[in-house]
Amino acid sequence: MNVESWITVEETPALAQAAREAIEARLARFSAGERDAFWASIVKAYNTPYNDPVKKPAAPQPVEPAPVVELVLPEIELPTAAIAAAALAGEIRAV
């Protein structure tokens, strides 16, 4: 949508400076902190887009390698293992 304006590009900086000076004159009655808060709210209002900004993907965090874990199991003979498995199966059915 085209916007008509009677202000030329060359006039813009001077008019912006005049407007800022007029606003600063009105804000003179406030403390410096209050003036800063006013200008911060203006910046936020005019710099906030109407649509949510496109979120940038977060930078990947460096991942520490997982510690090496060595699992040592006792060696058992096959007949002992079979007896233990059979005993556990019997207990599971009894419950």
Secondary structure topology:
Layout: H1 12-27, H2 32-47, H3 78-94
Explain what you see.
- The chain is an all-alpha fold and 95 residues long.
- It has a domain at 12-47.
- 52% of the residues lie in helices and 0% in strands.
- The chain is built from three helices and no strands.
- The chain has helices spanning 12-27, 32-47, 78-94.
- The longest helix is centred in the C-terminal third of the chain and has 17 residues, at 78-94.
- It is rod-shaped, with a radius of gyration of 37 Å.
- It starts with 11 loop residues before the first helix and ends with a helix.
What portion of residues is helical? 40-55%
- The general outline is rod-shaped
The rounded distance between the terminal residues' Cα atoms is 77 Å
Structural class, by secondary structure, is: mainly alpha
H/E element order:
HHH
Give a brief description.
The chain is mainly α.
Key phrases:
95 residues; mainly alpha; 3 helices
